[in-house]
Amino acid sequence: MGFASLRVFCVITCMKFFIKDCISSEEAEKIIPLAGEPRYVNWTLGRGLNNLPNREVFIKIFEKIFSSINENAGVEYKINNGIISGPISNSSYFNIEKGTTTTYLHKWHCDTGTGDHMKWCKFGISLLLSNPNTFKGAELEYCNCEQPCNKQNGVNPCPNNEVILKESHYLGVGIHDSSHFHRLRCGEESTDGVREGDRATFLAFL
User: Fold this and answer.
1) Do the bridges between strand 93-99 and strand 123-128 make them parallel or antiparallel, or are there none, so unpaired?
2) 21, 36, 136, 188: most buried, per Cβ within 10 A?
3) How many degrees, rounded to 5, is the angle at CA 198 between CA 59 and CA 142?
4) In which order are the strands placed within the sheet that holds 182-186?
5) φ, ψ for residue 77 (rounded to 5)?
6) Could you tell me if 183 and 138 are in contact, meaning their C-beta atoms sit under 8 angstroms apart?
7) Would 72 be classed as within a structural domain?
8) Domain for residue 65, yes or no?
9) What is the pLDDT of residue 4?
């Protein structure tokens, strides 16, 4: 089944779900320029959303994210006057990544971090902001095994792996629990077979 057509799904012990068309292309273009902006890199969610430019776009994103998490994960997040409440860690944050061939390659990992330095994280969020026609060779891939297996490569891929094509990911939000292994599949291993152009992504860690 394709990721684009499936709203909620669970495989083995990991949970992930998807919100299609979370924002418009015009809204995505409004927040891409914040990538790398020092004031907004790793924006701590405990600070709320009121001091952000284009705050209405961010509130719209988080309202949809929280609504889906609340519905599918049995927790309760709320936004009231730009302030977020719910099971938010003091360390929870979001950022906007914008990278080219040599940046943000993201090998296999889970969102609790290297050495569990982000053990507070419950959910990882990924929203592709860049039009898929503007870059090549970078797509989200999930390992649906309980642990990364020895078939995680382009030559002999694991049949449990799931690739989220950029056309499906664009403007949609992927949400996964923090223990779910994933990577950015790049270059020769990607559907395009080559890595070219900038790719901007909204990432959040709750």
Assistant:
1) unpaired
2) 136
3) 70
4) 162-164, 138-142, 182-186
5) -110, 150
6) no
7) yes
8) yes
9) 35
- CA dihedral over 189, 191, 197, 202, signed as positive or negative: negative
CATH code at 90? 2.60.120.620
> In one letter, which amino acid is 13?
T
CA 82, CA 69: separation in Å to the nearest integer? 18
- How high is the pLDDT of residue 87? 86
Distance set, CA 181 to CA 104, 109, 142, 177 (Å):
16, 5, 6, 9
Give the chain's domain count: 1
Instruction: Answer whether 180's CB lies under 8 Å from 31's CB.
Output: no
pLDDT in tens, the chain (206 residues): 333 333 333 333 457 888 889 999 999 999 999 998 888 889 999 899 999 999 999 999 999 999 988 888 888 999 999 999 988 888 999 999 888 755 666 787 788 876 778 889 989 999 999 999 999 988 888 887 766 665 555 445 677 788 889 999 999 988 988 888 888 888 888 888 888 888 999 999 99
- For CA atoms 67, 73, 76, 82, the dihedral sign is negative
Residue 165 lies in a domain: yes
pTM to 2 decimal places: 0.85
- Name the nearest CA neighbour of 16 among 162, 203, 177: 177
Question: 108, 189 in Cβ contact below 8 A?
Answer: no
Residue 178's Cα: distance from chain center in Å?
11
**Residue span of the structural domain in which 57 resides:** 8-205
